[in-house]
Amino acid sequence: MLNLDALRTATVLHDPFDHTIVDAFVPPDAVAGISQDYPRITTTGSFPLSELTYGPAFDQLIAELSGPAVRDAFSSRFDVDLAQYVSIITVRGRVGSHDGGVHTDAKWKILSVLLYLNPTWESAGGRLRLLRGKDIEQTAVEVVPKWGTMLAFKRSDHSWHGHLPAEGERRVVQLNWVTSQEKADSELTRHRRSGFVKRLLGRKPY
Predict the structure, then answer these.
(1) Nearest 5°: phi and psi at 67?
(2) pLDDT of 203
(3) Counting Cβ atoms within 10 Å, is residue 103 exposed (0-12), middle (13-18) or buried (19+)?
(4) Does domain 4-200 have CATH number 3.30.1120.10?
(5) Which residues neighbour 175 within 8 Å (Cβ) at sequence distance 6 or greater?
(6) Domain spans of the chain, in order of start
(7) Half-sphere exposure of 98 (CA within 13 A, CB side)
(8) Which distant-in-sequence residues (6+ apart) come within 8 Å of 58 by Cβ?
(9) 105: alpha, beta or left? (left if phi > 0; alpha if psi -120 to 50)
(10) Could you report the per-residue pLDDT of 72-87, keeping only the tens digit for each?
(11) pLDDT band at 161 (very low <50, low <70, confident <90, very high)
C-alpha cells in the first residue's frame, strides 16, 4: 500500500531544515478503500488510534506505516537510528481557523511524518509551509495536502512550520518518533484528554 521505493530514493533537502516530500506515497488506486474506511472525525484536533473506529483498508495502512520497513527507510534517509526511539500515530480529520500556528514541535520529537489523505485540495489555507523563521510569510516550501503526499522532517530549534487558516475536512495521519515511552504516553494521554473534553461539550470526535 505504501510506495517504499519512492521513500528509499527520496532526496532529503536542507532548506529551510532537513525534510523530504514524496508524492503518491499512497497510490491513487487506494483512494476509494482508504477514504471509505478512514475514521469519521467531526471535530478538530489529533486523536490516538485507540479513540477511533475505522475499517480494514485504513487498518492495513496503519499496519504498514507502523512497520519496521518504514522505520528503517526513514532511518536511512535521515541518517538517524529510529529503532532507539518510540513511535506514535495520531489522526486528524478536520481543520479549524485556530489551527496552523507557527511552531517547531516539542524538543522530545525526533522525526515527524505527515501523510495527507485528501482526494483533492483547493483551499489556499491548510497548505503546510516550511519556514525560514517565525513568520508565516517566510516560506521556503509549501506542501499541498493532496492525496498520498508525504512530508517528513527532522525536528530542530529552527524547524518552523505552520499554515494559513482553513476550515473543513482535512485528513492527515501523523507519525512521530519521540525520545521515550514516557513522552509517547504523555502525548497520547494529552490527545485522549482533549477528546474527552470535546465529548463532554457535546462535540463528538467521530
Answers:
(1) -80, 165
(2) 54
(3) exposed
(4) no
(5) 65, 66, 87, 88, 89, 112, 113, 115
(6) 4-200
(7) 3
(8) 34, 37, 38, 39
(9) left
(10) 999 999 999 999 999 9
(11) very high
